[in-house]
């Protein structure tokens, strides 16, 4: 265990009926030994200084009367508490050592312990001092809410998962408490995983909100629920696949890895959007969804790969960073790299397949009824060219202008009016005024009957413009 590592779990043992020395002895001999057997536990330390002990206060004047020194008393006490094997049995297959605990555990035994003889008189410990039952260190103690208590600190092994180890300890506590006397109250005083669990829950909530916002933005711009399903499936599937690869690499869901997943939520959906946009372009041009998926994926595949490589190049300095900072951020960078690579694979395989099977040209081009309601709100968000209309816009504007001029010319011809840019002469060449024109209604009907074949041909040659 690492002595600088803080405890992952702290227990408190209190009792209103039993002395603290007995509670401390129970914590040392029973509770600490059982908790040390849990996988991931490095050391169980009992604090509070309540170990039972016997205190002997010697009177120097009495020792001088009997001619006994302090060393004689110490030697006698040590000899009475020898904890050594008393012998052994040796056989052809095994040897067994005989061990007897000679430790004195009674205050009366200490008082009657013989130190020496003086002029034929036996001198005992009670003759030269007083014996009392106390603790090892009377200047150290433990308290919980003003009540005497024994504190048990549990430290983990290096590399052990804190949350998993604490869960195992909490699962083992009910069984251990069945062997503890009813007069002892065992409570969890401090749990280091509470802050860890709270921070992980916050990051998980942020990750869920991020995924929801990304899918909502995609829906607002695609304006089609059927088309939004495709990146909506690719995004969580990329994260789930990242979890599997993280598990193979030995990573855990800590703050750094979850933060990397939160950031990657915006990265992993880019490849799917680029792929969908190119496929939808062919669908709007009249291609079948499956043919458009093959053609669009073939064209945009290199772009998706280049985007992925450029993103990975950003994380290369973090991958090769040394020191403690590099050790911390290596997991962050690897998690982001794994997520981006997984997104590339899904965008090149699953996304075109879903576009070919799930996307319909009419649904993507027109959108659902609810999506059509969002079109006026999304129209101001469309990007306008900064340097004027491009060639495609010029061509569309030119065709629309030609259609309008042709329709205007047909209308003026039907009304008997001169062509655009001309004027009717005020007099004929012979100087007589022009004959009055027939009524507009009669001319309109007559001209319409005469011009119907030409208008039909013109309508075939010049389709109507929505403009």
Characterization of the model:
The chain is rod-shaped and about 155 Å long. It contains 16 helices and twelve strands. By secondary structure, it is an alpha+beta fold. The protein has helices at 20-35, 60-66, 70-80, 107-111, 125-128, 162-177, 193-222, 225-249, 255-284, 289-319, 323-358, 361-366, 369-373, 375-378, 391-414, 440-461, and strands spanning 9-15, 41-47, 52-58, 85-90, 95-99, 114-118, 121-124, 129-135, 143-144, 147-148, 150-156, 184-191. Helix 7 runs parallel beside helix 9.
What structural class do helix, strand and pairing data support? alpha+beta
Radius of gyration: 46 Å
How far the N terminus sits from the C terminus, by CA atoms, comes to 78 Å
Number of helices: 16
Poorly predicted runs: 365-371, 383-394, 437-467
Helix content: 55-70%
Characterize the main sheet. Answer: 4 strands, antiparallel
Which strand order does the major sheet show? 2-11-1-12
Average pLDDT confidence is 77
Strand content: 5-15%
Number of strands: 12
Give the overall silhouette. Answer: rod-shaped
Name the helix and strand elements from N-terminus to C-terminus, one letter apiece: EHEEHHEEHEEHEEEEHEHHHHHHHHHH
């Amino acid at each position: 265990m690492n002595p600088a590592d803080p405890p992952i779990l702290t227990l408190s043992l209190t009792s209103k009926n039993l002395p603290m020395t007995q509670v401390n002895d129970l914590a040392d001999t029973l509770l600490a030994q059982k908790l040390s057997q849990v996988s991931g536990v490095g050391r169980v330390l009992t604090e509070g200084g309540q170990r039972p002990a016997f205190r002997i206060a010697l009177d120097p004047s009495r020792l001088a009367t009997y001619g006994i020194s302090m060393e004689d008393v110490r030697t006698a006490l040590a000899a009475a508490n020898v904890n050594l094997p008393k012998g052994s049995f040796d056989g052809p297959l095994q040897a067994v050592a005989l061990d007897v605990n000679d430790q004195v555990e009674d205050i009366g035994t200490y008082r009657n312990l013989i130190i020496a003889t003086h002029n034929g008189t036996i001198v005992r410990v009670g003759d030269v001092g007083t014996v009392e039952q106390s603790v090892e260190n009377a200047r150290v103690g433990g308290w919980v809410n003003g009540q005497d208590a024994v504190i048990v600190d549990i430290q983990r092994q290096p590399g052990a998962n804190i949350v998993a180890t604490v869960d195992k300890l909490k699962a083992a506590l009910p069984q251990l408490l069945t062997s503890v006397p009813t007069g002892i109250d065992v409570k969890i005083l401090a749990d280091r995983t509470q802050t860890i669990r709270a921070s992980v829950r916050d990051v998980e909530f942020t990750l869920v909100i991020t995924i929801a916002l990304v899918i909502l933005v995609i829906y607002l711009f695609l304006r089609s629920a059927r088309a939004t399903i495709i990146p909506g499936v690719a995004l969580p599937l990329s994260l789930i696949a990242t979890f599997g690869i993280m598990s193979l690499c030995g990573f855990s869901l800590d703050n750094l890895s979850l933060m990397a997943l939160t950031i990657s939520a915006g990265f992993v959906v880019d490849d799917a959007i680029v792929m969908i946009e190119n496929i939808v372009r062919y669908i709007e041009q009249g291609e079948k969804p499956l043919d458009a998926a093959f053609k669009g994926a073939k064209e945009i595949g290199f772009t998706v790969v280049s985007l992925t490589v450029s993103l990975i190049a950003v994380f290369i300095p973090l991958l090769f960073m040394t020191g403690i900072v590099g050790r911390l951020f290596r997991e962050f960078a690897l998690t982001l790299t794994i997520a981006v690579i997984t997104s590339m694979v899904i965008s090149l395989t699953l996304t075109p397949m879903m576009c070919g099977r799930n996307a319909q040209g009419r649904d993507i081009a027109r959108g659902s009824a609810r999506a059509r309601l969002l079109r006026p709100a999304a129209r101001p968000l469309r990007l306008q060219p900064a340097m004027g209309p491009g060639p495609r816009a010029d061509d569309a504007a030119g065709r629309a202008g030609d259609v309008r001029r042709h329709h205007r010319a047909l209308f003026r011809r039907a009304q008997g009016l001169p062509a655009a840019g001309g004027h009717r002469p005020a007099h004929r060449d012979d100087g007589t005024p022009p004959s009055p024109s027939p009524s507009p209604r009669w001319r309109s009907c007559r001209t319409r009957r005469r011009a119907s074949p030409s208008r039909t041909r013109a309508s075939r040659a010049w389709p109507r413009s929505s403009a």
